[in-house]
Design goal:
With about 230 residues, this protein is an alpha+beta fold. Helix content is about 25%, strand content about 35%. It is built from 4 helices and 13 strands. A hairpin with a 5-residue loop joins strand 11 and strand 12.
């Protein structure tokens, strides 16, 4: 759409006035009519509403005799500020989208149990496979689900990061060895996403059960070919 802007120039009259179109590299083409210092600008590709706003700006510059160079500098600063705001908003939108993705992604965690014979203890270790934050608690049992370890009262939150030091965790536990039956142990490791209580999405809360037999030398032998049993929670 073509829009023509016309405004009066507040200048001192000259003895000679040259009329015609000035050179331009943008969508607007200026020309001086020579009548009462009237200046016309023809712009292509802008709407009527935009043209009226532009005319207000030009009239204000002319009426108040503002320095055009200073006005352009200020417009540049405003444009940079708007650009920075848009960039910040885009980054926030990306962060919010990533946070939503993580909320809806179930944590993938592997769990294991090994002995520490020299201390008469066991080591529980777990590793995050997809770096999704989660919370957990666990107990070590013997036959008939008899608990032979400490019983946690609440969940512990984990925020894994990339790399072995950021995704692999462990804890050394004391057991009631005299209560262990037939040298049999299980670890019941319950893991759930931090959004589980809010969203209750399938697969976001599960108990991992791994079974072991205590060997004569005190080491732990994984049963069921080392394949854990997964019990999902609803």
């Amino acid at each position: 759409m073509k829009f023509v802007l016309a405004f009066l120039l507040c200048v001192t009259p000259l003895y000679a006035q040259t009329s015609g179109a000035a050179d331009t590299s943008g969508p607007c083409s200026p020309s001086v009519t020579g009548n009462n210092n009237q200046f016309e600008i023809t712009c292509n590709g802008i709407g009527e509403a935009q043209g009226k706003e532009l005319l207000k700006i030009l009239n204000k510059i002319s009426r108040e005799q503002l320095d055009p160079k200073l006005v352009m500098e200020k417009l540049g600063e405003i444009q940079k500020g708007v650009s920075d705001i848009k960039t910040g908003m885009a980054k926030r939108e990306e962060q919010e989208a990533e946070a939503e993705r993580i909320k809806r992604t179930a944590p993938i965690v592997t769990v294991g149990l090994t002995s520490v014979p020299e201390q008469g203890k066991v080591m529980v270790y777990w590793e995050s496979k997809n770096l999704v934050p989660f919370e957990f608690r666990y107990v070590v049992c013997t036959e008939n689900n008899a608990i032979v370890s400490a019983i946690p009262m609440e969940y512990t939150k984990v925020y894994p990061k990339s790399g072995p030091k950021g995704s692999l965790f462990y804890s050394v536990e004391e057991l009631h060895w005299d209560q262990i039956k037939n040298n049999y142990l299980e670890i019941h490791f319950t893991v759930q996403s931090l959004s589980y209580e809010e969203l209750h999405l399938p697969g976001h809360s599960v108990t991992i059960i791994s079974k072991y037999r205590i060997a004569p030398d005190g080491s732990l032998l994984a049963l069921d070919n080392g394949q854990p049993k997964l019990i999902p929670h609803r």
